[in-house]
Design goal:
The complex is a heterotrimer.
Chain A (H helix, E strand, L loop, with lengths): L1 E5 L9 E7 L6 E2 L4 E6 L4 E5 L4 E6 L6 E3 L3 E6 L7 H22 L10 H11 L1 H10 L19 H10 L17 H27 L17 E2 L2 H10 L10 E3 L2 E3 L2 H23 L13 H16 L2 E9 L1 H16 L7 H14 L5 E4 L4 E4 L5 E7 L2 E3 L2 E2 L7 H16 L13 E4 L19 E5 L3 E7 L2 E15 L5 H16 L8
Parallel strand pairs in A: 9-11, 15-18, 18-19
Antiparallel strand pairs in A: 1-8, 2-4, 2-7, 3-6, 4-5, 6-8, 10-11, 12-21, 13-14, 15-16, 15-17, 19-21, 20-21
Helix pairs in contact in A: 1-3, 3-5, 4-5, 6-7, 10-11, 10-12
Chain B lengths: L1 E4 L1 H15 L3 E5 L15 H5 L4 E3 L4 H13 L3 E5 L10 H8 L2 H4 L9 E6 L14 H5 L5 E3 L4 H13 L4 E6 L8 E4 L11 E4 L4 E5 L4 H11 L5 E5 L2 E3 L3 H11 L2 E8 L4 H13 L8 E5 L10 H4 L3 H13 L1
Parallel strand pairs in B: 2-3, 2-4, 5-7, 6-7, 10-11, 10-13, 13-14
Antiparallel strand pairs in B: 1-8, 6-12, 9-11
Chain C lengths: L7 E8 L5 H10 L4 E5 L5 H6 L1 H18 L14 H25 L2 E5 L1 E6 L2 E5 L7 E11 L3 E3 L12 E2 L1 H4 L8 E5 L3 H12 L3 E6 L10 H13 L3 E4 L2 E7 L4 E6 L5 E6 L1 E4 L3 E3 L32 E3 L10 H15 L13 E3 L4 E6 L2 H6 L4 E7 L4 H6 L5 E7 L5 E8 L2 H14 L3 H5 L10 H11 L9
Parallel strand pairs in C: 1-2, 1-6, 2-3, 6-17, 8-15, 9-10, 9-15, 10-11
Antiparallel strand pairs in C: 4-5, 5-6, 7-16, 12-13, 13-14, 18-19, 19-22, 20-21, 21-22
The chains are: A alpha+beta, B alpha/beta, C alpha/beta.
Chain lengths: 521, 325, 474
């Protein structure tokens, strides 16, 4: 009899596969576990084994077809078998087992957090065997619902008629394959199984949407409620009158290991409940003037919000953190500070960091790029326009200092000061807010150590600077106080891997630690 | 090996096997010998064990009980039958004044290990005095044990345990269900311990305590109510001493209780159960104990019998009241 | 029971211990149920006591005598003396052997047999009255019940059975000493069987029948050989006569009949036997107490699981309807017991065989050619006369034939009719063929022993296929 074989779930988060090649032809005999097809999924190429001993009756998809998991890809002819569910399940879990190592490998870096799409397919894969399994095993309704005896001549022996009743099959629906169309026991069994498969398919498709909900839904917050509470009958009466659930009343005493609640406790609880309810009601009723306020979400705020959303939800962010000993930097700046003031330039650490960043970008050009999603190309930029995040009254803005590699420290310092001022008084030109290839955000100016900055889309990286201050550092086995600069680098993992991010950061740190290096850059 | 027996056949079987095992066991009563008992409870025993061990007595309950006491005090194990429990009253004096007190009176030198068997209860369309259910009279007397079985298996086992008990046991057989159903009863002697109740149906919402012929309608009510109320049904089996542990444990689990007995309400054992429950488990109690019982009237003649006995509908109604309090 | 009424509980109460009731009871006992079987008269019911068995015993006995006395052709010369009272005694012995056997089987299967008339008190209670045994009556509470109260001979108004002048078939099987002459009212199978028994005992038999031929309900070519033989045996027939009244005469009885036009005829004999059919017995169980009604013909309606309107009460046998045959009752009894026990059983038989034990015998099962056409089949018919059967010739009885009706297209056997020697036995093979959904080819290609009468069945199917060997095929 015929056995349909569906494409099993071959790995985590995989909903479809491409049939690369068939390893058998229609009419071939196959043995259980013999590979019949090669299927490619997102992660790996997998061999799909036959679930039965039999022959290949029909192949349903050509090589190159992309098939959804669960679609029937091939039908086998098997002799005299009963429940199909178990074997199909075994094949599914086998295939899953094979592909899993492949899936695991690519995850070994452990960084790519599965996004929203994955739990859907994963949950589906895990749960799918169960409903199909149960339905097919029983074959037909558990207790034969009484069938009406068909009127008119039936051409089936009495034992076959009885079998039909036991399996809940109406003879009128059975096609007889015996001589002259006589109905045989085999015909009845086939009809019963077809009915069960239909039920199973219905149940499966009915359950699948349900299974596709994320497996780890947030559990509802728990409410304290006991199974049993002791109380005098009088106390219970009081509880009933006050509309209190005695199992929720906090119990101070215990008897025989069970919580005991007194009449007083019940009254107290009722009062508390009452007060809470009053407060809630008041809130809802809108004496809310003092408690809530509404502010319109538009303008710069909204723009910032939209762009942050776009960035965060498009680029998979990874943040890399590190701290660099800034003692030398502090010294150098101190040395140069007076000179700068003489030229009326405010010299901060920023220009030094910018130079360090550019030096690192030259070594790691992929951090200075953009992913052109439409063209499926990464655009590496050989110019260095650094965006500097500025906090203004209107919100965050990122003015751009162009060609940082070509400008001196003081020039950079001046430009940063000017652009920041322009940004704050809203006189900055639009073009000065565009075109950056990499950005720096100095939240340390306000305070803080580490953060997870959001990339200034469509750039690939952003470096966040924590506050430079004295912190304990281990030097030659002893703890000393040194000025340190915490760094937080966020990168777009589509373009750059964690390893590169780390190396880039190390490079930046080299230049910060030893600013003299910038001279030979 | 087991046989499928009715309750009255189990009585006979128990008597037979015990008599075969122990020569001290004597059966006596009106029509128990040659006739085999008006309910066939002693059928064939006379032929098998002879007139010395199966004694047809005169029509004298006082004489029957008194003679049995004497036999018991001197080493025999008599099983006197009172033809209907309502006929017991002439023999009451013997039972209460003497059988129940012999051990105490003699400071343990004498005891009266007799088993007083009598068919009890209504439901058989019988005339006056043939439908009594006065187990409370006997439970109230210290020194007596009272047993009321509800299944054939229990009947034989409890009867054998009663015969082996060193003190007087009043063994009341609910005659309404003498032949109502059959059950596998093991061959040979075996005991079902006295003083142990049986949980016939486990449940979580409400405990029903009952015994004798009322057990079956109570279980039937439990099935009918199964969707609404999850009933626990406890068959007391021994009415003195009552298995308080089982009763209290059940009540602590459910917090609500009903008692079903065909005996009249006032002074019936339902009151004893209600009192003890509130003593032992007041803090668990969520509703008053509902007593579903016979009425405080003389047992009516048969035209009204069905109104008197707490059968299915009345049991269900009573349980609902207790549940919905 | 001294005072009061202790009711006895039982799982299944079967009312009536005839071929429907006792079979149901034994089957239920086999399936582990607690069964109580109530019988007011005799275990085995009509069939064992007053019908099938005694009649077939007498038929055989009279045949033995008759054959022996008419076998000169074979070189056997004899004039057997028949002691009718001994014959009747032997017949009674056979009956009690069988009823005793049924009682033993009941006991062995855990069925309790209670003597008395059972009637319903309510849907789950019945009372059993022990007539004349001094014990009054008892109450039984049952979970399920099967009504198997059977049927009784129809009494024509004016012809109340008195067991002396006006006999029912039951009385007829029991007479001590045969009458010289009998008027048999009714030429159905019972009337014909009895007539032939009597004729073979040299009783002067006249048969009066309301319809126009013997064995109404059977095809003409089946009835004809029987009528011919009956006439050979000296039986006189008068058709179109409805029995009207009778009066006692010196000889015995004078029966008056009327035809359609109102003409009156008179027939005189020592006794009259009235065999005009049977009516269901439903007035003894107090159906009102359970709210069951009978249909216009007095039968209890049931479904294909033998259930009445009340889910826990079943009815089987003659009380349910036609055909009033013992084997139909047994089948229904078996199915009812199985259904009650929770099995997937049902009344799904494709055909019920029937037999008439006249001389020659008739056996039928399934559809006639006409019926097959009505059902929409295109019937093909095969026929094999016994005069072409070697075995038939060796028995000296070669009147009659085997006819098989099949669907031309598929070859499925739809029905069969046999008239001739052992027709009652031969029909069994064809009943099996129909139930199995066998085709003509299946039977025709099965080797049948030679020389037997059964071969004729094979040849009839071959004839339908056009290639019977021992006759010309059309």
């Amino acid at each position: 009899m015929a056995r349909e074989f569906k494409l099993p779930d071959v790995g985590e988060g995989v909903a479809e596969g491409e049939i690369l090649e068939w390893l058998v032809e229609e009419g071939d005999a196959v043995t259980e576990d013999q590979p019949v097809a090669e299927v490619e999924t997102d992660k790996a190429v997998v061999e799909v084994p036959s679930p039965v001993n039999g022959t290949v009756r029909e192949i349903h998809y050509d090589p190159g077809s992309v098939v959804e998991v669960g679609s029937v890809i091939v039908t086998f002819d098997v002799e005299g078998e009963e429940a199909a569910g178990e074997e199909v399940e075994a094949a599914e879990s086998e295939a899953t087992g094979e592909a899993a190592p492949g899936a695991a490998e690519s995850e070994a870096t452990g960084e790519a957090a599965p996004g929203a799409a994955e739990p859907e397919a994963g949950g589906e894969a895990a749960a799918k065997p169960a409903p199909g399994d149960g339905a097919v095993e029983t074959g037909a309704p558990d207790s034969p619902a009484e069938l009406e005896i068909d009127e008119g001549r039936q051409f089936a022996p009495p034992s076959v008629r009885r079998l039909a009743r036991e399996l809940g099959v109406s003879l009128a629906t059975v096609e007889g394959t015996g001589p002259s169309g006589r109905i045989t026991a085999q015909d009845v069994r086939a009809a019963a199984e077809a009915a069960a498969a239909g039920t199973a398919a219905e149940e499966e498709s009915a359950t699948r949407p349900r299974d596709s909900e994320p497996a780890d839904a947030t559990p509802a917050p728990e409410v304290e409620r006991r199974d049993r509470t002791l109380a005098t009958p009088k106390a219970r009466g009081v509880a009933a009158d006050l509309g209190v659930d005695i199992d929720q009343v906090p119990a101070v005493e215990e008897r025989e290991g069970e919580a005991l609640v007194t009449e007083a406790a019940i009254r107290q609880f009722a009062d508390a409940q009452q007060a809470a309810q009053t407060a809630d009601a008041a809130a809802v009723a809108g004496t809310a003037g003092e408690r809530e306020e509404r502010v319109e979400y538009r303008g710069v705020r909204r723009t910032i919000g939209d762009r942050m959303e776009e960035s965060k939800y498009t680029a998979p962010h990874v943040s890399h953190h590190d701290t660099v000993d800034a003692s030398r930097l502090v010294e150098v700046r101190a040395e140069l500070k007076e000179r700068a003031e003489a030229r009326e330039v405010k010299l901060t650490y920023m220009p030094f960091v910018m130079k360090a960043v550019v030096a690192a970008l030259k070594e790691f050009p992929f951090l200075n790029s953009t992913l052109d999603e439409e063209a499926d190309e990464i655009v590496l930029k050989h110019y260095y326009h650094i965006g500097i995040a500025v906090a203004t009254d209107a919100g965050l803005m990122v003015p751009v200092v162009e060609n940082v590699d070509q400008k001196g420290i003081l020039q950079l310092a001046q430009e940063v000061t000017d652009l920041a001022a322009q940004a704050r008084d809203r006189s900055i030109a639009l073009e000065d807010l565009q075109g950056s290839t990499f950005s720096i955000t100095n939240f340390g100016a306000i305070g803080g150590e580490y953060a997870t900055p959001i990339i200034n889309y469509p750039e690939v990286g952003i470096l966040g600077l924590g506050a430079i201050q004295e912190r304990p550092v281990a030097v030659d086995g002893e703890v000393v106080a040194r000025p340190t600069l915490p760094l937080s680098l966020s990168i777009d993992h589509r373009v750059v891997d964690g390893a590169i991010a780390a190396e880039f950061t190390n490079t930046v740190m080299e230049y910060v630690k030893n600013p003299a290096l910038l001279l030979i850059e | 090996m087991a046989e499928s027996l009715t309750l009255v056949q189990a009585v006979r079987d128990g008597l037979h096997d015990k008599m075969a095992e122990d020569d001290a066991v004597i059966v006596m009563g009106e029509d128990v010998g040659a006739n085999g008992g008006v309910f066939r409870a002693t059928e064939g025993l006379y032929d098998e064990f002879g007139e010395d061990r199966v004694i047809d007595t005169p029509l004298s309950e006082s004489g029957i009980v008194g003679t049995a006491i004497g036999m018991a005090a001197y080493g025999l194990k008599p099983v006197p039958e009172i033809q209907f429990s309502g006929f017991m009253y002439p023999g009451f004096d013997q039972l209460i004044s003497h059988a129940a007190r012999l051990r105490n009176r003699s400071r343990g030198r004498f005891s009266a290990p007799l088993v007083l068997r009598a068919p009890m209860g209504g439901g058989i369309r019988a005339p006056e005095l043939h439908s009594e259910s006065k187990e409370a009279f006997y439970s109230h007397e210290p020194g007596l044990k009272v047993v009321i079985p509800s299944t054939p298996h229990d009947t034989k086992g409890l009867l054998i345990a009663a015969i082996d008990d060193p003190d007087p046991v009043v063994f009341l057989e609910p005659k309404k269900i003498y032949r109502s159903f059959r059950e596998d009863v093991p061959d040979g002697t075996y005991e079902v311990p006295l003083g142990e109740a049986a949980v016939r149906r486990e449940g979580a919402d409400l405990s029903v305590f009952t015994w004798g012929a009322m057990t079956r309608p109570t279980l039937a009510a439990a099935e009918t109510l199964a969707d609404e109320i999850d009933l626990e049904v406890v068959d007391l089996r021994t009415l003195s001493p009552i298995d308080w542990d089982t009763i209290v444990e059940s009540f602590k689990k459910t917090g609500r209780a009903a008692v079903v007995h065909e005996a009249p309400k006032t002074g019936g054992l339902g009151a004893e159960i209600a009192a003890t429950i509130q003593e032992e488990a007041l803090l668990y109690q969520e509703a008053p104990v509902e007593r579903i019982t016979g009425f405080d009237v003389q047992y009516p003649l048969y035209a009204l019998e069905d109104y008197y006995l707490p059968e299915a509908a009345r049991v269900e109604a009573g349980i609902r009241e207790a549940f919905e309090f | 029971m001294v005072v009061g009424d202790v009711s006895t509980g039982t799982e299944l109460a079967v009312i009536g211990a005839g071929t429907g009731g006792y079979v149901a009871a034994i089957r239920a006992g086999q399936l582990g149920m607690d069964v109580t079987l109530f019988e007011d008269d005799a275990v085995g019911g009509t069939c064992l006591n007053y019908g099938c068995i005694p009649s077939k015993a007498l038929i055989t006995a009279t045949d033995v005598a008759h054959e022996a006395g008419n076998a000169e052709e074979m070189g056997v010369y004899a004039d057997p003396e028949v002691a009718v009272d001994e014959m009747v005694e032997w017949k009674n012995g056979v009956v009690s052997q069988l009823t005793g056997g049924v009682e033993k089987l009941c006991k062995a299967n855990g069925v309790e047999v209670v003597e008395g008339r059972a009637e319903f008190q309510d849907e789950h209670t019945l009372r059993v009255a022990h007539g004349g045994q001094g014990q009054g009556s008892e109450t039984y509470e049952f979970e399920h019940a099967i009504i198997a109260t059977g049927s009784r001979p129809i009494e024509i108004p004016g012809f109340e059975f008195d067991g002396d002048h006006v006999l029912s078939s039951r009385h007829a099987l029991d007479f001590a000493g045969e009458p010289d002459s009998v008027v048999v009212v009714g030429a159905g199978y019972i009337g014909m069987e009895l007539s032939m028994v009597l004729a073979k005992l040299d009783v002067d038999v006249t048969v009066v029948e309301m319809l126009e031929d013997v064995l109404p309900g059977y095809e003409d070519d089946l009835a004809r050989p029987v009528k011919k033989r009956a006439e050979e045996l000296g039986i006189d027939f008068s058709f179109g006569q409805a029995a009207d009244s009778w009066e006692e005469t010196e000889e015995g009885v004078l029966v008056r009949t009327e035809d359609e036009e109102g003409n009156v005829s008179e027939f005189e004999a020592e006794k009259t036997i009235v065999a005009v059919g049977r009516a269901p017995v439903t007035d003894t169980v107090n159906l009102e107490a359970i709210g069951l009604e009978t249909d216009d013909d007095g039968f209890i309606e049931t479904d294909d699981r033998a259930r009445t309107e009340l889910e826990h009460i079943y009815a089987v046998g003659d009380v349910v309807g036609e055909p009033m045959l013992a084997h139909k009752a047994s089948k229904e009894g078996t199915v009812a017991a199985e259904v009650i026990a929770g099995e997937a059983s049902a009344l799904d038989y494709q055909a019920i065989p029937a037999a008439v034990f006249t001389d020659p015998e008739i056996g039928t099962v399934g559809m006639t050619e006409a019926a097959a056409e009505e059902e929409g089949f295109e019937p093909v018919v095969g026929r094999f006369p016994f005069r072409a059967s070697g075995r038939a010739l060796t028995t000296g009885h070669s009147d009659g034939f085997v006819r098989v009706v099949a669907d031309e297209d598929s070859g499925f056997i739809l029905g069969a009719q046999v008239v001739g020697p052992e027709a009652s036995e031969l029909i069994a093979e064809l009943a099996l063929a129909i139930e199995m959904g066998a085709t003509l080819e299946d039977v025709a290609t099965t080797i049948h022993t030679h020389p037997t009468l059964a071969e004729s069945v094979m040849e009839a199917t071959e004839n339908a296929l056009g290639h019977a060997i021992h006759i010309l095929n059309r």
